[in-house]
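hey
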């Protein structure tokens, strides 16, 4: 099983920027698509962005489009989520995930299984006004 380790996150004022990293411990993330999700206590986990296995396609939910950028650093088995112009509504715990059944296209996430094989431990992002 792939272990995903997240880093980054923290607290920032509205309009600020943060960068999250998601690193695979046991093999290259080039094999599968990777998705980023976020969750606020008491609410369902929501999709944020995804990147295809070969980094040829990315997708962003409307709420983050134009502000967040997902990318891949293959040499380091790492996915990055750069978050700019952060807003209070972006406050959440952010998770990366990957799965053999996950595909990412410019139209969105496409997941053929009910569960994800691997999740990161979560990174807290807090945006204050």
């Amino acid at each position: 099983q792939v272990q995903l380790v997240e880093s980054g996150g923290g607290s920032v004022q509205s309009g600020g920027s943060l960068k999250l990293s998601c690193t695979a411990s046991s093999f290259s993330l080039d094999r599968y698509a990777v998705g980023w999700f976020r969750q606020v206590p008491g609410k369902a986990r929501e999709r944020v962005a995804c990147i295809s296995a070969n980094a040829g396609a990315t997708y962003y939910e409307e709420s983050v489009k134009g502000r967040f950028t997902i990318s891949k650093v293959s040499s380091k088995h790492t996915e990055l989520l750069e978050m700019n112009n952060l807003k209070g509504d972006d406050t959440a715990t952010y998770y990366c995930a990957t799965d053999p059944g996950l595909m990412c296209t410019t139209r969105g996430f496409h997941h053929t299984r009910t569960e994800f094989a691997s999740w990161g431990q979560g990174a807290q992002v807090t945006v204050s006004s």
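DSSP finds no helices and 13 strands in the chain. The chain has a mean pLDDT of 94.
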